[in-house]
Design brief:
8 helices; mainly alpha; binds zinc ion; globular
């Protein structure tokens, strides 16, 4: 019986993974993500249900569009598997079983998965386009609010600890919308700070601390590798500004630490 639950969470994750691909593609283009039908980006043919089964469709179609035979990037297939594994591991980390399924742990698990959705989409868009979308940050903040209400009502946590985060968030959003509206480039920094607040509310101080620490290590290593690569090439180019997807690093590391932390607690 235990395996059935594992399978359910893996399938759920795989379906969400295929949704993330769609969201990462459509949100920056300001396209609808819930009502509009899925279609092939190459030939614009509407996709049938058989083309939309996560993981399996890719295998059966041998990685090609059924209609125009255009290759589908293997990245989508891998993302569906990865997302399935993340959902499965996160569910396992709560060590929930069928006998005690209606407990506070299950509520926290569901909230966590909804929070992961925000992180997955933010990470995807940041990695592809080096930008962070306000609408997804807004969604993350809504999940945070539900989380705050939950822990304050059911776990009697002190709400004042969260008030400071919310004040900070309000401040960042104000700066983001009022002052920096014209200079698009600088908005990225503010949006990273907004993302940090969202992470801090959901993960608590210790996990946030590790998330930031390991993000800094990742940035340092990436810069070092870039530096070595440049010297090897010996091409004296204009000092091109390399923009790092910091939001992507933060999200990936945060997910890893939330899972590890749960395994240690439960
Ligand atoms: Zn096609």
């Amino acid at each position: 019986m235990e395996y059935i639950m594992d399978v359910i969470f893996f399938i759920m994750g795989a379906f969400f993974g295929s949704f993330f691909t769609l969201a990462v593609y459509r949100i920056p283009l300001k396209k609808d993500i819930t009502h509009e039908h899925s279609y092939c980006p190459n030939c614009n043919h509407k996709l049938a249900i058989l083309d939309l089964i996560p993981i399996f469709s890719y295998i059966f179609l041998r990685g090609k569009c059924r209609y125009c035979k255009q290759k589908i990037r293997i990245r989508y297939f891998l993302l569906e598997i990865l997302s399935g594994i993340v959902f499965l591991l996160y569910a396992k980390s709560f060590s929930i079983n069928w006998n005690y399924i209606f407990t506070e742990k299950t509520v926290l698990l569901m909230l966590g998965l909804l929070y992961f959705c925000a992180l997955f989409i933010i990470a995807g868009i940041d990695k592809e386009k080096k930008q962070i979308q306000k609408s997804v940050l807004g969604y993350g903040l809504i999940i945070d609010m539900i989380y705050i209400i939950y822990v304050c009502v059911f776990e009697q946590k002190n709400i004042y600890g969260y008030v400071i985060y919310l004040i900070l968030m309000t401040l960042f959003v104000l700066i983001d919308t009022c002052i920096l509206k014209r200079k698009l480039d600088t908005n990225y920094t503010i949006q990273i700070l907004e993302l940090l607040v969202i992470i801090a509310i959901f993960s608590g101080e210790i996990i946030s601390y590790y998330t930031i620490l390991f993000t800094l290590i990742w940035i340092a290593i990436t810069c070092l590798i870039n530096c070595i690569k440049r010297k090897k090439n010996k091409v004296v180019q204009k000092q091109e500004k390399i923009k790092l997807p910091i939001g992507y690093y933060l999200c990936v590391i945060n997910i890893i630490f939330l899972i590890i932390n749960n395994f240690l607690i439960y």
